[in-house]
What we know:
Radius of gyration: 26 Å
CATH superfamily of the largest domain: ATP-grasp fold, B domain
CATH topology of the largest domain: D-amino Acid Aminotransferase, Chain A, domain 1
Distance between the termini: 78 Å
Helix content: 25-40%
Strand order of the largest sheet: 14-13-10-11-12-15-22-20
Mean pLDDT: 91
Structural class: alpha+beta
Oligomer: single chain
Number of strands: 38
Strand content: 25-35%
CATH architecture of the largest domain: 2-Layer Sandwich
Amino acid sequence: MFDSVLVANRGEIARRVFRTARQKGYRSIAVYSEADATAPHVDDADIAACIGGATPADSYLKIDAILDAARKTGAQAVHPGYGFLAENAEFARACADAGLVFVGPPAEAIELMGSKRLSKLRMIEAGVPCVPGYSGSDQSTETLAAEAARIGVPLMIKASAGGGGRGLRLVEELNGLEDKLAGAASEAQNAFGNGELILEKAVINPRHVEIQVFADNHGNVVHLGERDCSVQRRHQKVIEEAPGPSVTSEIRAAMGQAAVDAARAIGYRGAGTVEFLLAEDGSFYFMEMNTRLQVEHPVTEEITGQDLVAWQLDVAAGKPLPLKQEEISFSGHAMELRLYAEDADAGFLPQTGTVLAWNGDDLALRVDSAIEQGSEISSYYDPMIAKLIAHGSDRDEACRKLLRALDELVLQGLVHNGSFLKSVLQDEVFAVGEATTAFLNERELGSVAADATRELMRDLAVCLFARSNGQSRWTTATPLPVKIKLDGEETTVREDLKILSDADRGGIFFEADGVRQSAFVSEAPEGGLWISLEGQTQFFEEQSFSTKKDDSAAAGSSIIAPMPGAVVALKTEQGAQVSKGDVLLVLEAMKMQHELTAPRDGIVAELGTQEGAQVNSRDVLVRLEEEIA
C-alpha cells in the first residue's frame, strides 16, 4: 500500500494524474526542471522537487535525480505518465529496487514490448494476427535484402526499438533498398541506441485502431474498447476518437480478444494499449504495444464512464480490476483534439512564447491542459499544450461540440494549430468517418471561410490601430482617417466596420457589413495585437510609425532562428559557396529537428553560431553575401 504518488513527468499528464490522486486521498508530489519552476503542474502538487536543468537529459530523463527526489519527499509510489521514462524498463527496475511502487507494468513486459522484433515474435506465438514480414535476429544487409524480395513490395522498414516515425521507410521498389536499410538503421541507432530493423508487408491506407487493455495481479485482463487514431501527421496523432467509425461489433470483439491475449502472453499489469492496423477488408494486424497510459485515454474514459488513472492506482495498490469484461459498457461517442504550439502555415514549425490569454477552463467540454495564463512555452519540450475532449450522443454531436469550442477558444501569445484542427473537422472525408492514415497527406485542408476570417481580422486590426493612434486608446468614437501599415501594405479603415465596445484588453463587439460579432484582443508586451476570431488567432504588428531598421535591402541575406533551440548540426563554414535550398544547419526544438536552408545562392560571409550552441528566436545564424563574379 502507499499514500503518496510522485509523478515523474510534467505538463498536462502530471496535472491529470494529480487530479485523480487528490480525489483518492493520495499526497501528490511533482518534479520539475529549472525551466518548469513556475509551471502549473508544480502548483497543482502538494510538494515539489527540482531535478535539474532545462533539457530533458538534465532533468526528466535522469533516473537518479528522480529517485533522489522521491527519497527527499517521502514518495512511496511513482507514476511515469507518458513520454520520458514511461516505457523505460531500467527506470521501472530502479523504482522497485528503491522500494517504490511503480504505477505501471513489470519491467520485463516493458522491455519485451519495447522491441518490435521480439514483441512480434511473442505475438505470433500467442496467436495474435501480425503483418507478414521478417523479425529475425540476422540483421545483415544480405539477409534483409533477401527477405524484402520474399515479402515483396510495397513493404515497410521499421526500427525495432522505437516509434514516432524514426527509422521508418516505405519501400515501393527494391531498387535502392540497401540505401534505405542503411538510412533506417542509422536513424534508429541515433534515436534509440539500437539499429535493429524489422520488415513488414505494407498495409496501404489502413486505419490505425488501438485497444485499451487493463490487467491486475489477480489474473484478470479486460479491454475497454477501441480508439481510432488514423488522423496523423508525420506518424504523430492529431485527432483520436472512440468508438472507431469503421469498427463493427464483430471487429471490436475479435480485436479486443486479440489485445487481451497479447496482454496475457507477457504477464502484463496495469494500463496498456495494443495498436493494430485495420485494413479495408476488416482484417487487422498487430503493430505494437504501448506499455503506459496513452495521451488519448480521455476518449475511452468518456465513453465508458471510468477513470483510468484511478484504475492504475488501484491496480498498483494490489486491488483487483473494478469491472469484469461483461460489465464494461459504452455510451455515445468521444473525440479528442491535440492542441499544439505550432504554425500550420509554416510547415508546422513549433512555437514558443508567453500565454497572454487562455480560456480553456471556460469551454463547455473537457480540457486537459499544461498551461495557464502567464505560462511560458519553451523549446525544450513537446509542443502539445492541451487536449480538447468532447462527448456526444453520436459522432456528429461530438464533432459539433469541438467545432464550437474551437470557435470560442482563446489562446494568445503564441501561434497554435486551432485553425488547422477546425479545417480537419470540417473536411468532408473526415466528417463521414472515412479518414485513413493517409488522410492528412492526401487532403489539402483549408477553406474560403478561413481566408475570409483572416481578412476580417486584418481589417479589425487596422481599425483598432487607427483608434489607438488617434485617441491614445481604443474607443467607440469615429476613427481618424489615417492609413495604417500592416505586413508592408498601407490600408485605411473599412467604412462599414464599427467597434461597439471598448477594447483595452479582452472581449470586444464589432459590426462589419451589418453583422455583429465578437472577438478577443490582447496587447503583446513588445507591441502589436493578438486577435482571436472564429477559431483563428493571429498576431498583427503596425509599421506605420516603426523605428526599426528597414531590412528590405538585406532580404534573403540572413538565416534567422525561427525559435529557441539547439544547433545539432552545422553543415557549412565561413567562405563556403552555397545554392538556394542547401541545408546550412539543423536546429532541434520541442523534440523535433528542423533543417534551415539557404534562401538564395551566395557565399557564407558570417556564422553566428556553432554546433552544440543554444540559440534564441530571431538570432542571426548565418549571413550570406553575393557571389563575386
